[in-house]
Amino acid sequence: MSHRIILITGSGSGIGAATARKLAAPGVSLMLHARQNADGCDRVAAEMRDRGAEAATMIGDLGDPDVAKRLVQSTVDRFGGLDVVISNAGFPNGKLIGELERPDLDRSLGVVVGGLFELVTEALPHLRQATDPRVVAVSSLVAHVFRPDYPLH
Known about the structure:
Helix content: 40-55%
Strand order of the largest sheet: 3-2-1-4-5
Order of helices and strands: EHEHEHEHE
Number of helices: 4
Structural class: alpha/beta
Distance between the termini: 34 Å
Number of strands: 5
Strand content: 15-25%
Largest sheet: 5 strands, parallel
């Protein structure tokens, strides 16, 4: 793998952390992000460095459009560009259909869909300069399975 600069949201634990582990290698620079889990991001970053990758972290709520801008800019400033955006940030609401209120849904969609939109919008000029750019959007089970007893994501 040639040098790759990869930004992974929601990478302090779970799927995002597992994705970072899979991609970490010498020649890979990873910007790891979490909404609140600074300790998790720091642990994952240390593990990535042990595997030979460069790693940095940033904490911020992607429900705030300015966070995507700062995240992309921090990645470019730290590593000199951006080749891959992996949008994995999101959180389960835990409320069932019928209990969920519109502000809860708007909050979740603001992070999952709005966060992806803001990240790609901010990253696009840098991705256009990359040799083999990629955007990966990780979805949840709710995107594929609808049951009235499942919480909306």
